[in-house]
Design brief:
Layout (H helix, E strand, L loop, with lengths): L19 E12 L2 E12 L3 E5 L6 H9 L6 E6 L9 H4 L2 E4 L11 H10 L15 H8 L14 H13 L5 E5 L7 H16 L3 E5 L3 H7 L2 E6 L2 E6 L1 H8 L3 E7 L2 E7 L2 H12 L3 E8 L2 H26 L5
Parallel strand pairs: 3-7, 3-8, 5-6, 6-7
Antiparallel strand pairs: 1-2, 1-4, 8-9, 10-11, 10-12
The structure holds adenosine-5'-triphosphate.
């Protein structure tokens, strides 16, 4: 795993203007003539959990790396904790926590030693409000690694290593935590514990920006969901609101006389009332299903993909190309 290493001179101050921690406007990124980000804009506030969704190759990692200061953008305005990441100092970097990939370089270290060692870099930046670093025993308990405290990193299971990744990411008590697919490879119990950990960090005012391909996880964790597709943010809002916006329709399923029926309607309450008026007790197995976040997500991504395919066809035909 790679973390934001803290070097002398780091410190922490409050985020600017009433709690805006991330402010992205018209962000553009072009790789070798190919536009990946075409005007991305969003904000994140202090203590907010923001989940960035998008299909493979949409540019999520690119966006996060730009915010972390690891990648130079092509254009646009980006402010993270009051600073342009392109000019981020070590002092600024100390306020970020970054969980990128599995920590492989320190296999011989024991878990407790590694966390104590990395945490020691943060000690100079402890404040009365934010005690740095996180006490190692408390941190081990928080990520569920108490029993592995004296094990060597190289002997941990994949899921335990992922927990260690997270511990390394938060040992300095970051104000802003970036998590790129943090629960990939975790079992359901570890995943659920991890969700509790993220919510706990947010309750203590840590802002969290995370990517995942697990829509149930996004729904459970996010204060706000961003969908990145076609180089732009195509949706931005609470999970429930996104689902309602995409479709006012609900699917009603029922059985009668041993046969299964299904109806899609924008007025499920009225429909169900009529159904019972007509057939009464003969109705069984009633199920009313509203659009889920997954429905919303797939609809939006397909619309963007269909739109860009149509756009490309139009551009080709205007250039006189047959396909
Ligand atoms: N260094 C690079 N040089 C050229 N192209 C790149 C580079 N890094 C990423 N890309 C391209 O930019 C696009 C976005 O990549 P990115 O990794 O940001 O997507 P992602 O949304 O994180 O995808 P995934 O869900 O698969 O992890 C892809 O088409 C990728 O091939």
């Amino acid at each position: 795993m790679t973390t934001a290493h803290v070097l002398p001179g780091a410190g922490s101050g409050p985020p600017p203007d009433g709690g805006t921690v991330i402010d992205v406007r018209d962000l553009r990124m072009r790789y070798r003539g190919q536009d990946v980000l075409k005007g991305v804009g969003f904000t994140a506030r202090r203590g907010e959990v923001v989940v960035l969704l998008g299909p493979n190759g949409a540019g999520k990692t690119t966006t996060i790396e730009i915010l972390e200061g690891f990648r130079m953008r092509s254009a646009g305005d980006v402010t993270v904790l009051g600073t342009d990441p392109a000019h981020g100092t070590e002092r600024w970097r100390a306020r970020l926590g970054i969980v990128l990939q599995s920590w492989r370089d320190h296999g011989k270290w024991r878990v407790r030693e590694l966390l104590a060692h990395l945490g020691s870099y943060y000690a100079p930046y402890s404040t009365p409000v934010v005690r740095r670093p996180w006490d190692v025993d408390e941190l081990l308990a928080a990520v569920g690694l108490t029993a592995q405290a004296d094990k060597r990193v190289g002997t941990l299971s994949g899921g335990q290593r992922r927990r260690l990744d997270v511990a390394v990411g938060i040992v300095g008590r970051p104000e802003l935590l970036f998590l790129d697919e943090p629960t990939a490879g975790l079992d359901p119990e570890a995943r659920s514990e991890f969700h509790g950990l993220v919510r706990g960090l947010a309750d203590e005012n840590t802002t969290v920006l995370l990517t995942t391909h697990d829509l149930a996880e996004a729904e459970r964790l996010a204060d706000r969901i961003l969908i990145l597709a076609g180089g732009r943010i195509v949706a931005d809002g609470p999970a429930g609101e996104l689902s309602r916006r995409a479709s006012a329709e609900a699917t009603v399923r029922w059985t009668r006389d041993g046969r299964a029926f299904e109806e899609t309607t924008t007025e499920p309450t009225r429909f169900v009332r009529r159904l019972f008026e007509e057939h009464g007790e003969a109705i069984g197995g009633l199920e009313v299903r509203r659009a889920s976040l997954e429905d919303t997500y797939l609809t939006m991504v397909r619309e963007v993909e269909a739109g860009s395919a149509a756009g490309e066809r139009a551009a080709r035909s205007s250039r006189g190309e047959s396909r």
